[in-house]
Design goal:
Blueprint (H helix, E strand, L loop, with lengths): L4 E3 L6 E3 L9 E10 L2 E11 L4 E5 L6 H8 L7 E6 L2 E2 L5 H7 L1 E3 L12 H8 L8 H5 L3 H20 L15 H13 L5 E5 L7 H18 L2 E5 L3 H7 L2 E6 L2 E6 L1 H5 L2 H8 L6
Parallel strand pairs: 5-10, 5-11, 8-9, 9-10
Antiparallel strand pairs: 1-2, 3-4, 3-6, 6-7, 11-12
């Protein structure tokens, strides 16, 4: 049975029952960035609940990936603030943002293609591996113990997607859909509180997309984290997201539930263009 969602003020947040007594994981206030005279993102205010699955949609060039680059500190905002667990992360580096709890995947797959599936996931465990440079250089017992723990953790994460049998396969040898899943597993290995998925269904067939929807729900429920995704597949967005925000020309033009969004005339106009009056 689906639990009720509660709208939080006018912000882009639809909290699940489990999140009612918790602080939002993400808040942006008047977030914007300007490149020369172009406002790529302008006055974007979003709030994502602690275990919310949220969607960010809009036409090509609307500024969606730019928002992700701002959240992950690839870009520094021209104005506005980003709060992660109520901490202002403006001024953070991408590495600091990742350690604070933001992980992402990319529109174009960015795996270490010549490394094994297992090693790709172990790269993501850098926040958890605890041994010194000297320990690794001299192969101290602490090094081998940490490596053993990392391998076990990587295999556990792979098992969520049923990929543990492919642990020693070269990443480039995986089918496209499996490479997409591996990138998500590697992001999860960094132990995020907020997972950003940039077009996770790109290039997938309908059965793979349906499986991905279940995977996204499973990730939220297993890890108790928030997920914010960019996606052009409206069946996936409408089927998996609690709340959705719509960007157009760098501005949020609508926020709400899937039903709110699909019936919003501003959203319809942004995607289809304004209809001529008869």
């Amino acid at each position: 049975m689906t639990k009720p969602l509660v709208r939080v003020n006018t912000d882009y947040a639809l909290l699940r029952e489990e999140d009612l007594d918790t602080t939002p994981v993400l808040e942006t206030r008047h977030l914007g960035i300007q490149f020369g005279g172009l406002k790529a993102v302008d006055d974007v205010n979003i709030t994502v609940g602690r275990t919310e699955i949220a969607g960010l949609i809009g036409p090509n060039g609307a500024g969606k990936t730019t928002v992700f680059n701002l959240l992950t500190k690839v870009y520094a905002p021209t104005n506005g603030s980003i709060f992660l667990n109520r901490v202002d992360i403006n001024g953070y580096t991408p590495e600091q943002a990742n350690k604070a709890g933001i992980a992402r995947t990319f529109q174009n797959i960015r795996l270490f293609s010549q490394m094994s599936v297992l090693d790709n996931v172990m790269v993501g465990l850098h926040n958890e591996i605890k041994y010194s440079f000297a320990g690794s250089l001299f192969r101290a017992p602490s090094f081998f113990n940490s490596e053993k723990i990392a391998v076990e953790r990587a295999l556990e994460l792979l098992s969520i997607f049923g990929m543990e049998s492919e642990a020693y396969t070269k990443a480039s040898s995986l089918p496209y859909g499996a490479q997409r899943r591996l990138e998500i597993v590697r992001a999860l290995a960094t132990n995020p509180c907020l997972l950003l998925l940039d077009e996770p269904a790109a290039g997938m067939n309908p059965s793979e997309t349906a499986e991905l929807m279940e995977n996204i729900r499973g990730i939220r429920d297993t890890f108790k984290i928030a997920i914010l995704l960019i996606e052009h597949d409206m069946n996936l967005v409408m089927g998996v997201c609690d709340g959705i925000g719509v960007l157009n020309f760098g501005k949020l033009i609508a926020k709400g539930s899937p039903d709110d969004i699909k019936n919003n005339p501003d959203v319809i106009e942004a995607y289809l263009g304004k209809q001529k009056e008869e």
